[in-house]
Amino acid sequence: MTATFGTNDVMTSGTQRRSKLSNVVKVSPSVEIALVREYPPLPFVSIKHLFDTVAERRNLLEENPDKLQYISFSNVTVSTVVAVEKCREQRRLHFRQTYFPDIQTLIIKVPSCIHERAHTNLGFELVRRYHDMGMKRAEFYGWGATTTKSRNQSPGQTHSSKEGDSSFKNKLLRPGNDFPSLMIEVGNLESISHLRMAAHWWIEHSDGRVNIVILVKIEKAKKRVTFYKYVPRPPSTQFPGLRSIPSVKATQVAEIVIDQSTSPSPISGAPLILEFTAVFDRQPNPPREKDLVLSGQDLDGLISEMW
């Protein structure tokens, strides 16, 4: 998937420009982000069937936390999604939703207990570190799993929507329902493909407003955790086939692996750096305000309490 960024003019012969491209596709196709080819959706039957399926998956995850956390349903209308959300609130059920109206596909992410502990405690650690810098609460405001609608949509498409695990933003500079600047998404071993696509959704569908996505892959059986960091980058200027032209691309820039099956824990890829300007949308005021650096030892200590 390749495309231009910042201009629609295509260079030919090194010096000549062709006419501007029309109807530019600003995000990756929904069928790619939803992984419907790799994980064919179940046909939607009823809301009761959907909730029963979620309950079965939750029971499976209690027995084996490394199993796939995601369930996809096809032929789901917008009105059905609204009804599912209402029933979920009434029953006080906990799961995350991503909806693609253009392909009528609803993806449900079923969190396990270890999943919830991971993103919650990582978020607590970030809040503590930024509090020590003297940051105001509104500057690192927890946005939680708030449903967020796509900002960057292809022509003629209805906005897709997504719920993450934990999210934060500078509410003083991003009021209302503006996208968070920092997203945290957690998944297990079999869910890594969905996690990577989540990073693409947040960055592409926000048109780069989400500055950092942290993915946390948990392998409970091996007591191993991998942190991935994604940021927005301009896509390639080459586009053979012209399958799609996202205006911004999610790019992995860090991978940190911590293996707690032995002691001391082997660690590779550290540290995890959260740039101040990316998190807070402004320049730091030194010396207290600066990039947050989580060392391998910091992350090792954080996840040691998770098991």
Assign the CATH topology of the largest domain: tt1808, chain A
User: Helical residue percent?
Assistant: 25-40%
Shape category: globular
Q: Report strand order across the widest sheet.
A: 7-10-11-12-13-14-15
Unreliable residue stretches: 1-25
CATH architecture of the largest domain: Alpha-Beta Complex
Strand content: 15-25%
Q: Rounded to an integer, what's the Rg over CA atoms? A: 20 Å
- Determine the mean pLDDT: 87
SSE-based structural type: alpha+beta
Distance between the termini: 38 Å
- Count of DSSP strands: 17
Provide the domain count: 2
Put simply, the count of helices is 7
Assigned CATH class of the largest domain: Alpha Beta
Helix-strand pattern: EEHEHEHEEHEEEEEHEEEEEHEH
Largest sheet: 7 strands, mixed
